[in-house]
Specification:
155 residues; alpha+beta; Immunoglobulin-like; seven-stranded antiparallel β-sheet; 3 helices; 9 strands; elongated
Length: 155
């Protein structure tokens, strides 16, 4: 009985060591992304959102993934304003509300898409590609809401 218990304990210990060793060597492939690294510390990596307006063919606005399109941003001026707002957003480090605002689907010239989920009435957005959150300044919030409302009114 003691030998069986000892063998079982030894087998459990070897299995635990094996799982721990395998877990350290696993590397996940990160998706190709539209973010750049800005600051590294031992515990936090902060990244800025970055997108080039010339790479965008159009941006569709909706109230959710399965909802109809409420507006389309297509003019170079509106795309330029949108990219200016997005590229100056800062990484969100605090809590965010769960209030859903809009989903922006950015169609790029190369055929790929980037989805940005806005919350808090335009206070922040999340890149669905990277799951990173970004905060907009009060002026940026006003600008993004005004742009979305203008485009939706025209649609």
């Amino acid at each position: 009985m003691k030998r069986t218990a000892f063998a079982l304990l030894l087998l459990l210990l070897v299995f635990t060591i094996f799982l721990t060793a395998c877990g350290r060597d696993v590397q996940l492939n990160e998706p190709e992304s539209s973010i750049k690294e800005t600051e590294k510390t031992d515990t936090v990596v902060q990244q800025l959102f970055e997108i080039n307006g010339e790479d965008i063919s159009k941006v569709s606005i909706s109230t959710g993934p399965n909802d109809m399109v409420t507006g389309v941003i297509e003019t170079p001026e509106d795309i330029g304003l949108l990219t200016q707002i997005l590229n100056t957003a800062t990484p969100l480090t605090g809590d965010a509300t769960a209030d859903y605002y809009r989903l922006l689907t950015i169609d790029k010239m190369n055929g790929s898409t980037i989805e940005l989920e806005f919350g808090g009435n335009g206070w922040f957005f999340k890149s669905l590609e990277t799951s990173l959150f970004y905060e907009l300044s009060p002026d940026q919030r006003t600008e993004i809401r005004a742009l979305i409302e203008k485009i939706e009114a025209e649609h």
